[in-house]
Amino acid sequence: METIERTLESQKNIALVAHDNQKPALMRWCARNQDTLTQHTLYGTGTTGSLLRKTGLDVNCLYSGPMGGDQQLGAMIAEGKIDVLIFFWDPLESMPHDPDVKALLRITTVWNIPVAINEASADFLIACEYFGEKFVTQIPDYSDYLIGRTN
């Protein structure tokens, strides 16, 4: 498949998501990194976004994950409106919306966006020199497909 360049601007659009028993960890992480996060545009699924607002962060809240929030984020990723996903998920607890979570993680791979799935990977990601700088990446070029031409 052909690829095209996508430039992630220095001010990123960051999605923040956490499963219920990971919400306290994400809240602590966001509070610890508040100075950096306030320089970006933040999005969160329903309950997570509402809780993060209590830390003083300006978070654009979507629906809760089980009510379609994961799918909203997936659509935003496909549209190039989300640059980074920080998703503190719980791999040991089955969730009723597991297919939505899997689809969200799949779409991040399809569109080649940076993802952190726990505190350690979030620390590495936010410490990266590109987090607050422009970054050029490659994404699939679906232009032929989108205008109806297929091979």
Automatic annotation (TrEMBL):
<dbReference type="InterPro" id="IPR004363">
    <property type="entry name" value="Methylgl_synth"/>
</dbReference>
<dbReference type="GO" id="GO:0019242">
    <property type="term" value="P:methylglyoxal biosynthetic process"/>
</dbReference>
<keyword id="KW-0456">Lyase</keyword>
<dbReference type="InterPro" id="IPR011607">
    <property type="entry name" value="MGS-like_dom"/>
</dbReference>
<dbReference type="InterPro" id="IPR018148">
    <property type="entry name" value="Methylglyoxal_synth_AS"/>
</dbReference>
<protein>
    <recommendedName>
        <fullName>Methylglyoxal synthase</fullName>
        <ecNumber>4.2.3.3</ecNumber>
    </recommendedName>
</protein>
<dbReference type="InterPro" id="IPR036914">
    <property type="entry name" value="MGS-like_dom_sf"/>
</dbReference>
<dbReference type="GO" id="GO:0008929">
    <property type="term" value="F:methylglyoxal synthase activity"/>
</dbReference>
<feature type="active site" description="Proton donor/acceptor">
    <location>
        <position position="70"/>
    </location>
</feature>
<feature type="binding site">
    <location>
        <position position="23"/>
    </location>
    <ligand>
        <name>substrate</name>
    </ligand>
</feature>
<feature type="binding site">
    <location>
        <position position="97"/>
    </location>
    <ligand>
        <name>substrate</name>
    </ligand>
</feature>
<feature type="binding site">
    <location>
        <begin position="45"/>
        <end position="48"/>
    </location>
    <ligand>
        <name>substrate</name>
    </ligand>
</feature>
<dbReference type="Pfam" id="PF02142">
    <property type="entry name" value="MGS"/>
</dbReference>
<feature type="binding site">
    <location>
        <begin position="64"/>
        <end position="65"/>
    </location>
    <ligand>
        <name>substrate</name>
    </ligand>
</feature>
<feature type="domain" description="MGS-like">
    <location>
        <begin position="6"/>
        <end position="151"/>
    </location>
</feature>
<comment type="similarity">
    <text>Belongs to the methylglyoxal synthase family.</text>
</comment>
<feature type="binding site">
    <location>
        <position position="19"/>
    </location>
    <ligand>
        <name>substrate</name>
    </ligand>
</feature>
<comment type="function">
    <text>Catalyzes the formation of methylglyoxal from dihydroxyacetone phosphate.</text>
</comment>
<dbReference type="GO" id="GO:0005829">
    <property type="term" value="C:cytosol"/>
</dbReference>
